[in-house]
Specification:
93 residues, alpha+beta, Alpha-Beta Plaits
């Protein structure tokens, strides 16, 4: 079920944004764009995200879009490796 969420824009005004819960759909899409396989979005995920990224956001985005749960490993330099089986494997293709 898609909900709406009131967010405060940089200029202080309010905007209604489509949401699935804690994050807007746009926030989830932005997170996905950092990790989805560039060859095909349904392929397994193996990406590096910036230090301090919100792993909970990436988890929800990957679950909602790909139907699988990601694994995270913090690297020595603080960046985070994200892996997941991907959509094709999650749905049994």
């Amino acid at each position: 079920m898609e909900l709406t969420k009131v967010i405060i824009l940089e200029d202080g005004s309010e905007s209604l944004m489509p949401s699935r819960g804690k994050w807007t759909i746009q926030q989830e899409e932005d997170a996905l764009n950092l990790v989805l396989n560039k060859e095909h979005w349904k392929y397994p995920i193996d990406a590096i995200i910036p230090k301090g990224s919100d792993m909970e956001l990436f988890t929800e985005a990957i679950i909602n879009q790909c139907g699988c749960c990601p694994d995270f490993k913090v690297l020595k330099d603080g960046r985070i490796r994200v892996t997941a089986i991907g959509y094709f494997n999650a749905v049994g293709c």
